[in-house]
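Filed under: proteins

Residues; backbone shape codes:
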Amino acid sequence: MQKVLKYIFTGVIVAIAVGLVLFKYRDYVTNPWTRDGQVRADVIQITSRVSGPIVNLPIRDNQFVKAGDLLFEIDPRTFQASLDQARAQLDETGDNVQALGKQVEAAQAGVNASRASIAQAQSAIDQFNATIAKNKSEYERKLELLPKKATSQRSVESAKASYDVSVQKKISAEAGLRQSHAALAESQASLAEAQAQLGAVGESNA
């Protein structure tokens, strides 16, 4: 009986010793330690795309995080101020675009008016050419009749006056035509300048 107890006691001691060895080995594997050893770990720096003061830091050192967790919060007031300023500039730009659009419309109206004046002046010149031809023919006819006593000197002078007046009116109409051409060139230059200032129409306008 004593031998059996001795064997059992010895076996228990051996089992305890083996268990202690396995426990220390496992502890050494999971938590190695030495005076001369170094532990190296991957360090990942987290930075934001924008800079600014941090107003909220909800995580702690060495905390386990997963994708989507809030790491820190930047003060939004600076960016809100920039957004408000950009919106104000956008509104001002929109007003400027509308004003430039009105200038383009006014310049286009000037071009159309100048073209209408040119057409009117050309039409007047054509009418005066017909009148001049008629008055000249009448004047020459009366000159031929005057030696034959078929008309009076007064009638001849009246025909000549009508002819001279029609010629002067044509000269004035030609001057008006030149002025209309000059006004058209000026209106077209103003239109081109206004269109250049306005830029492209639609969302492609910078």
